[in-house]
Write a structure and sequence with these properties.
The structure is a single chain. With 262 residues, this protein is an alpha+beta fold. The protein has a single domain, classed as Penicillin V Acylase, Chain A (4-Layer Sandwich), CATH 3.60.60.10. 16% of the residues lie in helices and 37% in strands. The protein has five helices and 14 strands. The strands form two sheets. Strands 1, 2, 10, 11, 12, 13 and 14 form a seven-stranded antiparallel sheet that branches. Strands 3-4-5-6-7-8-9 form a seven-stranded antiparallel sheet. It is globular, with a radius of gyration of 17 Å. The chain starts with a strand and ends in a 5-residue tail after the last strand.
């Protein structure tokens, strides 16, 4: 993922609500959200190059959300794949804290990333720049390609829209309510652009929630919700085929009831 907003115990009907975009090069092969054939207890999209993912969940209510942290000065010559972190988490019995503590030991082997994990005990954030595990209290959070809740204009704009949707819909939510947010193309004024080492033109193109930058852009919209009855909804719109200028969005909706961990 490259931008996401999360509501954690801030809505009367849904303990967890996530709305996110995945931005990636169109040439990188990926599969749409599905139950994984080799691990059917896991649901999510999949990167077909390294068999990793940007977001996935399991039947016990755990999930993982990954974004890159845009700091090219910290890039490695031969880094480990960041995308394998979530499959590793969901395929093991570890709780979120135990898994993140293991990651801390070799965090420098990866290019910069943010990782948000959910389990039965809570919601947690870790990034391998600061190398700190943070327990997240109930509230609204935004994450893009910097530290958690870094006030980039598009993150703040999206958080306002996200919170308005939740405030005006105290009852049942539908995933497509979040699509106008995830498809928002408003760019930031030049004076408000972050300085991340990119040239001004590219920084401008990346300043919108929905990105269309030629060979790179928004390839998937994801909405994930768990309601008070333990019903999970994983909704995804993804581009197929993955190609610049393609507007053929495929919609996938997966629903399942949480299974209590033994």
């Amino acid at each position: 993922m490259c931008i996401a907003w999360i509501s954690y115990h801030s809505h009367p009907e849904y303990p967890i609500i996530l709305a996110a975009n995945r931005d990636e090069f169109f040439s990188r092969p990926a599969a749409a959200a599905a139950y994984w054939p080799d691990q059917p207890e896991i649901a999510g999209g999949r990167d077909l190059k390294d068999q990793g993912t940007w977001f996935a969940s399991d039947q016990h209510g755990r999930f993982g959300l990954l974004t890159n942290h845009r700091d090219f000065s910290l890039h490695k010559d031969a880094p480990k794949s960041r995308g394998v972190l979530i499959p590793c988490y969901l395929s093991r019995p570890d709780n979120a804290v135990a898994f993140l503590e293991k990651i801390q030991e070799d965090a420098s082997d990866f290019n910069p990333f943010n990782l948000i994990l959910l389990d039965a005990s809570g919601l947690y954030h870790f990034d391998n720049v600061q190398k700190q595990i943070t327990v997240l209290s109930p509230g609204l959070y935004g994450l893009s390609n910097a530290f958690l809740d870094t006030p980039w204009p598009k993150l703040l704009r999206g958080k306002t829209i996200f919170s308005e949707i939740l405030a005006t819909t105290p009852g049942q939510l539908e995933p497509d309510m979040f699509l106008p947010l995830l498809k928002d193309t408003q760019m930031s004024p030049d004076q408000d652009l972050p300085s991340t080492g990119l040239d001004l033109d590219l920084e401008k193109k990346l300043s919108s929630i929905y990105i269309d930058a030629g060979t790179y852009g928004t390839r998937a919209h994801t909405v994930f919700m768990i309601d008070r009855m333990g019903i999970v909804t994983l909704y995804e719109q993804s581009l197929h085929p993955n190609a610049p200028g393609n507007k053929n969005w495929r919609t996938t909706t997966l629903k399942y009831k949480l299974i209590a961990s033994e």
